[in-house]
Amino acid sequence: MTTSTTPRVHHADRKDGADATGSGIAATSETIRIPVSGMTCAACQSRVQRTLQKQPGVSDATVNLMMKNATITFDPSAASPEDLVEAIRQTGYGAELANPDQTAFEEQEARDLAQDEEYHDFRRKAIVSGIIGVIAMLVSMPLMSQLAAASHAHGEVNDPFMRWSMRVLDPALQRVVPWMYDIPARPLSWLLLAVTLGVMAWAGRHFYTRAWAGFRHHSADMNTLVAVGTGAAFLYSVVATVAPEIFISRGMTPDVYYEAVVIIIALILTGNMFEARAKKQTASALRALVQLQPKSARVIRDNQEVDVPVESVRAGEVIVVRPGDRLPVDGDIVQGESAVDESMLTGESLPVGKKPGDRVIGGTINGTGAFRYTATTLGQDSVLAQIVRLMRDAQGSRAPIQRLADQISGVFVPIVISLAIATFVGWYVLAEQAPAVRGFAAAVAVLIIACPCAMGLAVPTAVMVATGKGAELGILIKGGEALQQAGKITTMVLDKTGTVTEGKPTVTDLLPVGEFGDSPDELLRLVASLENSSEHPLADAIVRYAKERNVVLATPEGFAAVSGRGAHGIIDGRALAVGNEAFMEDWSVDASPLRGDAERLAGEGKTPMYVTVEGALAGVVAVADPIKDTSREAIARFHEMGLEVVMLTGDNQRTAEAIAREAGIDRVVAGVMPEGKVAEIKRLQGEGKVVAMVGDGINDGPAIAQADVGIGIGTGTDIAVEAADVVLMRGDLRSAAQAVSLSRRTMRTMRQNLFWAFIYNVVGIPVAAGLLYPAFGLLLSPILASAAMAFSSVSVVTNSLRLRTARIA
């Protein structure tokens, strides 16, 4: 497969590359990934992203809430990584440069550890504050009874949740613990004040510190809403505790909201806890890949077998593998045979037979045989490390559908604060009873329920789960944009050799003429000697065929290959050319004497190649490349999905049509060179079609790059190739169908997530403001608002997690 110029990660998780400018001068750029801590919602994400995009020298900045990092492309002459870290810190969030020596495995392990710590921290604080909240609510009931009696107020308790508690729980509480009702109201109020202050300072501290940091930097996020809502409730309660006569003199009950503050914090933390646990599950596929890396290897050193840490294995060392062992690194077998389970790479559970000379991949599992192999690619260059890096990059990328949520999140919090103020004013002006208290409670409910967390998680969670699911199926999807675009495909363009066919052609016919009419072996020797310098699959078939017949090959001189036509050179002093009829015309050779045989062979699905020696027609060699058993099934699936299927090939028209008929392909464009494939894809795109190009990446790199979605056929040793948007590890077209199906399923999930995230706020905010009160007398308690807000994020993540168990056909 061909490589691209996309930069690779290096020091401090940075990428170096060159961007072509309009002047043709290469402008150096770097891409760096910086971990960001403290982000909790879409507004947090938008704040950091906008700040980075405004920095000098920054050409692109993307912040991912799920991965908690920022990916920034910048001009190093205008900004430094340290400048970017400081810019993030100025927004009120934590940031630090990644460890330059940290491997992809170590980075994922560190992220897993951080997620575990985050989950356990949320759980501990949620449990403690929840218990305190329940106790505070129970203590508040005798307190409310005493305050109402002391103020001679006869109105109902304003908080609907507490009103229900007073009606249902209060009588039972009076029977069980009557002594609580004998405690004076003032000590109870001060006790609740002290306990609430402790919970706010410990369990809820991060809400207030981050909200203050945002205020200092003229921005707002979820923490702002929580801090303002609970802070206002707390300050209101403090006034009612310290100076209750202010309320009593106005005929109002000096209600306190301490229990609401504590329970709101507890419920939000509970939601954070479940969200953190669900986030861990979204990265389960990536975590499983990291765990495939063995910790040790058995190597031959000083003629002895010794176990060493896998990090100390050196290239060229011989590794011993016993039955059932997991291979520690990549390499080539030198002794022994076995069958290896490569399902971690390909998603295919059937073991693959291995013998001396075959490639093996670290992380795969040996079967019942034993063998020794030489270590080749190690560490960050290993196949497993590259897969982990590709998945990490993909899960940290953003799908275009996220942009709408980002735009809304950027202005969401200020709008919500404005709505809360308007809610208070509306109640204060219109309410007949306790307008200030009811307006205050409704404003707090609006602030609490309107957290934009769900919007920030709607798309990233689906991307993470989908890319993980793809990896389990042997499909590496290189980002959210590729994932989204794959669902829009209308035309599937296929390369022939190695994509539709096996890619292992064999010689079927050799028709010598002229001086070689009675000496076909000599003609075979000349042709095979020439093709021995070519990398084309058809050339390899001819060379293998000659070697199987023990033909001794000569060394060619002046070898040259002409893409899409053939090859020429000198063998034993004789000029030789092998190729299609157009190539013969280039050499002024009349191919008409063998045209009939060539057309017959082509009609049988074989590829005929003319041979000319010293300018004279010498014969035809025919090679057949059988269709893969899975290609017909895959193409049938494409048709079921409503996709048009086109095959592009450099082969002749009759051969291509014969293969297309057998495989069920709609249309064939034959006899095209790489630039012709690009032109055909551009033509299809010009017709408004969304085109995917599937190829092995050798001659198809330009077409793969041109397509809306480039799909590369991988072999397990070249998965780091970046020309394609999607890599199929199995080399099976059915995986391409699965990729499209997975994309469509993921897009449905993303739209569902965004719909419910938006609807939640569209419905929840008016209800919290009191829209239903005039008609139904219903108000939303701040406590219930916090519960709804906390679990909205959990519902989005849970919906995304359904992709893990989805059946992708």
Keywords:
27 strands; disordered N terminus; alpha+beta; 809 residues
Q: What's this entry about, in short?
A:
The protein is α+β, with helices and mostly antiparallel strands. Helices cover 50% and strands 18% of the residues. Helix 1 crosses helix 13 (402-430).
Characterise this structure.
The protein has 809 residues and is α+β, with helices and mostly antiparallel strands. Strands 15-27-26-25-16-23-24 form a seven-stranded mixed sheet, with helices on both faces. Strands 1, 2, 3, 4, 5 and 6 form a six-stranded antiparallel sheet that branches. Strands 9, 10, 11, 12, 13 and 14 form a six-stranded antiparallel sheet that branches.
Low-confidence stretches: 1-26, 152-156
Percent of sequence in beta strands: 15-25%
What is the overall pLDDT average? Answer: 84
**How many extended strands?**
27
Sheet with the most strands: spatial strand order: 15-27-26-25-16-23-24
Distance between the termini: 27 Å
Biggest sheet details: 7 strands, mixed
Structure annotation, total helices: 28
Structural class category: alpha+beta
Radius of gyration: 35 Å
What percentage of residues falls in helices of 4 or more residues? 40-55%
Oligomer: single chain
The coarse overall form would be: elongated
Give me the secondary-structure topology:
Elements lengths: L8 E2 L3 E7 L5 E12 L4 H12 L4 E7 L4 E6 L6 H10 L3 E2 L8 H48 L8 H17 L8 H18 L2 H12 L5 H21 L2 H4 L9 H25 L1 H7 L5 E6 L2 E6 L8 E4 L9 E11 L1 H4 L5 E3 L4 E2 L4 E2 L3 E6 L7 H13 L6 H29 L4 H15 L3 H20 L2 E3 L2 H7 L4 E5 H5 L5 E7 L7 H12 L5 H12 L8 E6 L3 E6 L2 E6 L1 H6 L8 H9 L2 E8 L2 E9 L6 H10 L3 E5 L4 H11 L3 E3 L4 H13 L4 E5 L5 H6 L2 E5 L12 E3 L4 H37 L3 H4 L5 H20 L8
Parallel strand pairs: 16-23, 16-25, 23-24, 25-26, 26-27
Antiparallel strand pairs: 1-2, 2-3, 3-5, 3-6, 4-5, 7-8, 9-14, 10-11, 10-12, 10-13, 10-14, 15-27, 17-22, 18-19, 19-20, 20-21, 21-22
Helix pairs in contact: 1-13, 3-4, 3-5, 3-9, 5-7, 5-9, 6-7, 7-9, 7-14, 9-28, 13-14, 13-15, 14-26, 14-28, 15-26, 15-28, 16-26, 18-19, 21-23, 22-26, 26-28
